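User: I'm putting together a teaching handout on how multi-component assemblies are represented. Below are the sequence lines for each component of a complex, exactly as they appear in our records. Could you produce the 3D structure of the whole assembly as structure tokens, so the students can see both representations side by side? Please keep the chain order the same as the input.
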Amino acid sequence: MSAADERRVSDPLDLEAPPGQARVVTADDRDEAPARGGPGADPQGRGRDDSEKLDQYLLRRYHLHGDRRAREQLITMYLPLVRSLARRYASRGEHFDDLVQVGAIGLIKAIDRFDLSRGVELTTYATPNIVGEIKRYFRDKGWSVRVPRGLQELNIRLNKIIDELVPKLQRAPTINELAEAASATPEEVLEALETSQAYNSVSLQASPNGEGGEDDAGLIDYLGGEEEAYDTMEDRTTLAPGFAKLDKRERYILHLRFFEGQTQSQIAERVGISQMHVSRLIRRSLEKLREEIGELDNPQILRPSGDNPR
Amino acid sequence: MAERIDLEMPATLNALSTVRMVLGGLGARLDFSLDDLDDLYLATDGLLRSALDADPLDRLSVEILIDNGVLRFAAGTFKSAKLRAEVTTYAEGCLDLCMLLRRTIDDVLFEDADGAYRIVLIKRRQDAPA
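Assistant: Of course. Below is the structure of the complete assembly, with chains in the same order as your input.
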């Protein structure tokens, strides 16, 4: 867990506590934490009743007072639930982290739509929302064009096979090697790989509530791990108008591929996603950049540093 | 044994997927790795899109030659000076067509004839089993 995440889940009764003095609250702690403080005992209890559960308290803080930090705490507290539910679907060929991201959208929607007057537990309300979002991801957002089921299944199998073969071979597999491993013909493999370009994924920058205002946090803001790497890269690309259209992960992957000269397989290993996913992201990122050029009719748009035009 | 395939297609974006399917089959026969094949797709897609933007063409001609682990892709003929500049001129730190080709293809050549030219991309098999 990153320092930022620790800060988010630091002692929920002390929203102002410096991180160094804070206790980390886990999902298991939730039932115990509200025992501190008494009725009306703010400092730090801020008007909570003894019997009130921590999540109810945070929900009230968010819904009645607009406290976005309380919302963030709730999201962080319930991410283990999202992970647990996402794990059930991890065997279907999608990257586990992607499912967690999608599930987190369901969690955030549940938190935002929670009705305090109903008197139900957040877990009860959030679970079907999270599962629903994951199922919707598979059902609606998975394939943007109609792809025959057999090819979809082969594509999913290939995804797994590539992930297994790359470390084993220490290089990207060939089409023939994939065909042999998948008990398919090279033509079928090529067709299945081509159809993978019709497969969508949720952007890490997508606003969880789908509104996308300037101040809205993207999903990536709630999930640690790779974000630090995106931020610390020497990324002049972030300054260019064309590249600004790309999310952090897309910029990072283009940077690794074209400025550091890494192969797709190396990038896949470094970023922690599949080679096929890297391939899709590169193709789509280049597509976005081309669209930008088309709209602005300015070849310099692809220029990351914005200085010394050719 | 060398093998040559000639494609002549209407100069539209639909031609790109035709080219990709042919390249996929040939790349598989050459035992290109998945990474190399993807690079080949990116390079040819990028080149042909730029060509379609830069040159008012009715037809697009592509010649693909495979021989001894090498794939030679020739497209043209073109007359656009802009396209030629896009392929040849590299600016440091700039992700343009030139940079894309440098990172994905082993060699880029021009074949000049009668004031027009063809662009040739060469991709060699790498890291694949002998």
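A couple of points students might notice: Chain A is about 55% helix and 0% strand. Confidence is low (pLDDT under 50) at residues 1-48, 201-239, 296-310 of chain A.
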